[in-house]
Specification:
Blueprint: H1 11-43, H2 56-65, H3 67-74, H4 90-103, H5 105-132, H6 134-145, H7 148-154, H8 160-177, H9 183-198, H10 202-222, H11 224-252, H12 259-269, H13 272-278, H14 294-306, H15 315-336, H16 346-349, H17 353-367, H18 380-394, H19 403-429, H20 447-480, H21 511-521, H22 523-527, E1 537-540, H23 548-552, H24 570-579, E2 583-588, H25 594-600, E3 606-616, E4 619-628
Parallel strand pairs: 1-2
Antiparallel strand pairs: 2-4, 3-4
Helix pairs in contact: 1-5, 1-6, 2-3, 2-4, 4-5, 4-11, 5-6, 5-8, 5-17, 6-17, 6-18, 7-8, 8-9, 8-10, 8-15, 8-17, 9-10, 9-11, 10-11, 10-15, 14-15, 14-17, 14-19, 15-17, 18-20, 19-20
């Protein structure tokens, strides 16, 4: 007979214990997800910033640091060429400027990236967790945070950093809305993130539209009535988000209407001269760029993996797969069937990788679904993804190769292992001559039979792990492989095709890049606010020096004199007469020639108002601000 103070532990008390522990487990799990970007930064040694191959990222930096300078100085001068388009990308700039105002230059940069990382990994984690469990969710986080393309996109102030996160998070939220629980909340969140992507970059418009249409198509396929309800709701979310962003842009950036400048920029960039400058009419550059094989490789592997149960596939997984395929098809058409540099410009193509990473995470999770229920093996997929990244970091040097033959062989690895795992799963689940695959080999009863079965299970789990590592490793090598030379081809874009520089994203150093970012970000404060509307500033510097980022702050070539520094050429004089700048900013990494340049400007009544040497680490920048009294108070054109 039991005493009154000792009661048996039954189902009710066990449930109570579980209910007591559940908030603690949820809290620990949430904390792990929240700190995952920080942990990944140190464990995977993520490159803190990416090198700048074009001035475009710095052209956005000025709008983060001091947007009023651009709107005050250049509203009239930029009107004809829609060069204020960088300031219209409010979906990225509002977030980045708020972080800058709250934390400063460098801390604000990294806080922005932390927020963008969370917007991608939290919905991805929730999606994989709901479909396969928490271990799969952490594997999805590892896939995103170890992707060189995503890391590089986050590494600059170009808005692909925001688009890749907004689209990944938005698609994951829409996928979660197809799963039933908290459906409306996820639907609204997905519409909100995709609308931010629309107003961050032109590629965001394409990706968000494709994601929305694919969502409605899947709704029609699963539950037609849902499409009639969700379509208008997504439209209302888009309108409300756009209006809220316009209000935020007015107070944070100084511009309420960013829609008209976006339309004007699209029309300007559609001009034949702009198309020739930025888009290659010759497609033969593409086989030299290996990382372009990653999206089709993932899409093919995804559909091979899920092909066996397409009729029973979860709506969320079906949506992600269709979305990845549709976005890849759209980008391929824009590049090779239209005249948008959707794939040749890595600042554009990188935006594809948000959904590609989601599809890859689902592919790996489906391949590894038999491991997740086992306590000792459930973290093998997560560990495999990390192991591939850490192994690459030991010697991050992949030789250059193109599509054939190396690229094609590596791109085929996910498809081969997806087919292998599909076949293996079929053999284990389908009867063959009256027996299952696991029981086809006769085993003696008792302990010997248990040992044989245990060995087969270990072999199966090892095969799954090898498949995951091979798939992840092959895609990583494709991502980081440098392009083979193709500069001799005809019909390439006039501005050229910039190198992707993905090889250093994992284990690469960013010390020099961070130094130059800090130095370049000091220029707006050194120059100071304009004293009247239309007070233009031009730059003059030696073009053979590595000044791409600092000169990008004030819009590089359009606001610069020619490469003859410190001697004025006839074209320089013509530009000065046309633009009539009140101020000229002299820049150099040595300071040599500044006195000569000042004397060369004699006819314009130059006056040196201040000078400085900006230093941080290895970065050194000499700067003189010169006022041209001949043009003080002059306007380039009437300002509306």
């Amino acid at each position: 007979m039991l005493s009154q103070d000792r009661r048996p532990v039954g189902p009710t008390s066990a449930a109570q214990q579980l209910a007591t522990r559940r908030p603690l487990l949820i809290g620990l799990e949430s904390l792990a997800v929240a700190v995952s970007p920080v942990v990944a930064y140190f464990v995977l040694r993520l490159r803190a910033m990416a090198p700048v191959e074009l001035p475009d990222p710095s052209m956005h930096t000025i709008y983060i640091l001091d947007p009023s300078q651009m709107f005050t100085r250049y509203a009239a001068a930029f009107a004809a060429t829609a060069r204020m388009r960088e300031g219209a990308q409010a979906g990225f700039l509002v977030l980045a400027r708020l972080c800058y105002l709250a934390f400063g230059v460098l801390p604000g940069f990294f806080v922005t990236r932390y927020v963008l990382a969370l917007l991608a990994v939290v919905p991805a984690y929730l999606l994989l967790r709901r479909l396969y469990g928490a271990p799969a969710g952490f594997m999805a986080i590892a896939v995103l945070l170890s992707c060189p393309v995503v890391i590089t996109a986050w590494g600059t102030d170009y808005p692909d950093s925001a688009v890749v996160s907004y689209v990944a998070g938005g698609v994951a939220c829409l996928a979660l809305s197809l799963q039933g629980r908290h459906r409306r909340a996820f639907l609204i969140s997905g519409g909100f993130l995709l609308t931010l992507a629309v107003w961050s970059h032109g590629m965001g418009i394409m990706l968000a539209a494709t994601a929305g249409l694919c969502y409605l198509a899947v709704c029609v396929y699963l539950t037609p009535r849902r499409a009639l309800l969700d379509g208008p709701l997504l439209g209302l979310v888009a309108l409300a988000t756009t209006f809220g962003l316009m209000v935020a842009s007015r107070y944070v950036l100084g511009q309420f209407n960013f829609i008209t400048p976006t339309i004007a920029a699209a029309r300007f960039l559609d001009r034949p001269d702009q198309v020739r400058q930025w888009h290659s009419s010759n497609w033969r550059w593409a086989p030299h760029v290996a990382y372009l094989l990653v999206p089709p490789s993932v899409v093919v592997g995804f559909f091979i993996t899920f092909a066996r149960r397409l009729k029973k596939i979860e709506g969320a997984a079906l949506y992600v797969g269709i979305c990845a395929f549709a976005q890849l098809a759209l980008f391929s058409y824009l590049q090779f069937g239209y005249h948008v540099q959707a794939l040749e410009m890595h600042f554009f193509s990188s935006t594809l990788w948000g959904v590609v990473c989601l599809a890859l995470a689902l592919l790996l999770a489906e391949m590894a679904k038999n491991l997740f229920p086992h306590r000792l093996w459930r973290l093998a997929p997560f560990g495999g993804v990390l192991a591939v990244a850490l192994l690459y970091e030991t010697d991050p040097h992949v030789p250059a190769f193109g599509w054939l033959p190396t690229g094609a062989l590596l791109a085929g690895v996910p498809a081969v292992f997806a087919a292998f795992m599909t076949l293996l799963s079929r053999l284990r689940s389908e009867p063959r001559r009256g027996a299952h695959f696991a029981d086809r080999v006769a085993v003696p009863p008792g302990q010997a039979g248990d040992v044989a079965r245990h060995r087969r299970l270990i072999g199966l789990r090892a095969a799954v792990t090898v498949s995951l590592v091979a798939t992840t490793g092959s895609l990583l090598v494709l991502n980081v492989a440098p392009s083979t030379p193709f500069s001799g081809l005809k019909g390439l874009a006039a501005e050229g095709i910039p190198a992707s520089n993905y090889a250093g994203a994992l284990g690469g150093s960013a010390a020099t890049i961070v130094d130059w970012y800090a130095v370049s970000s000091s220029l707006p404060a050194f120059v100071g606010e304009p004293t009247y509307k239309g007070e233009q500033l031009l730059m003059w510097f030696p073009w053979d020096q590595p000044l791409l980022e600092p000169v990008g702050i004030f819009h590089e070539g359009f606001n610069s004199l020619g490469p003859g520094f410190p001697v004025l050429s006839d074209s320089d004089r013509h530009k000065l007469a046309q633009r009539r700048p009140a101020e000229l900013l002299l820049l150099s990494i040595t300071g040599a020639g500044f006195g000569t340049a000042l004397r060369a400007l004699g006819t314009y009544r130059p006056e040196l108002v201040r000078s400085t040497v900006l230093r941080r680490g290895s970065a050194v920048l000499y700067a003189w601000l010169v006022v041209l009294r001949s043009f003080t108070g002059a306007s380039f054109a009437p300002v509306n």
